[in-house]
Target: DNA modification methylase
Amino acid sequence: MLFSPRLKPNQNCLISGHNLLVMQKLLEEGLASEFQLIYFDGPFNSGRIFSAPHPELGVDLVNPCYERETITQFNNPSIYIEEYRKRILAAKELLREEGFIVLQCNAKMGHYLKVLLDEIMGSQNYLAEVIWKVSNERTPHSFHFGYNHEVLLFYSKTEQYLKKNIATLSSLWDDVGFYETLDDENTFYPSQKPEKLMERILELTTMQGDLVGDFYCGSGSFPFTAARMRRKWIACDQNNNAIQITKNRLDKAGYKYQDCILINRFKPEWFDGTTYINKTPIPVSLLELEGLKKSTGISSPITVEAMNFSADCDLANEHGIFHFHLLVPLINSDGIDSKEWTTIPRPVPFQSDGGYRLVVPDPFKWVLYNIVHVQIDEKWREYHFSWSNLKNRVNGLLEKINNRWIEEVFYYKEHVELKDIFGYRYHLKRQKEVG
Ligand SMILES: C[S@@+](CC[C@H](N)C(=O)[O-])C[C@H]1O[C@@H](n2cnc3c(N)ncnc32)[C@H](O)[C@@H]1O
Model:
């Protein structure tokens, strides 16, 4: 496992990757006891699937691996708690002795998470349970009672005091803005938090120059506010759309940061002679494939199956010896993890006649791969899966797309990057100019 490019010391950094693995890697990189604040705003286990709406296609886009993770945890909350335990333990190691954890959650899982934090951080280091009033309205996702608050749990690593005198600050925050009043800040990413809320958390727990972390960064409200307040920051998310939205936000304001991705090194045990199978949430990259090539000296076709690919892996295909397939967990008719996998051929970028093409070997499956597969019944809190409904949605989308898979082309010195309509990026080596 490594960061590509390598993490530079003292630089703000946005990392695309699975947060537990990112935190473990940061510990390996020598960042134990370096963070002043770690802010957690993970999924609330509300059953909601993190998707990004595609404005033109009018659908919610999703990665099916994360969709499966959400469904599995919703149906079995103890998995959710155990996953949080691993991250809080890693965060504790990353924190300085004077550091803080702030964990945001809602009434559904909050009591479990507080017990977990008491256990890991020590109940003597519990500082506050702040209620943030999120809305003046009854929230659309609630039933029975109109939940309009969320909870922020403050813990210190050791017996330290908050940076500001909090004697005058109430534990009820109804003056920092609501979800419905994001106005100019709104990125339309689900669950985006107001900058004013981030500002208050940072003011209370950190000083200029301190290092802070957000490993569920979503639309980037936390790193964005940290940059404005001159804190050093490291942030990550596993969702490509989230990373893209965060980058747009930081770039627009001119904030500088290192743009990293967590990737694997080649693992010989994943290669069976004809297929290289990587089932980790870390994308397969050019670097990993170069390792494969070097250690096997292969010149015959090899199939690479993985849950995700970094864009640069297309550059390995110059000699046409790799076939790339996505490995997708199946969601059965109950919308429950079925432990079965299927493979989908990944689109292949080409340059021809001075233009660029994306050849999609199985258009039906490629659209199916990218859209939300289940619907949640708000009343009964159950997932519904309808194959006929899905088929109609895919066919409708295929008509709309009508073979126009490429949304944008970016030209770099050495390579060209194609972005497809679902936000996936593909790299192609630039051909030498003729004449
Ligand atoms: C509640 S949202 C965060 C919203 C964010 N605070 C904001 O203001 O936009 C949770 C985020 O966690 C991300 N996420 C969930 N599981 C993750 C994991 N294992 N690793 C990295 N990110 C993850 C989701 O993609 C989602 O963007």
Notes: The mean pLDDT is 90.
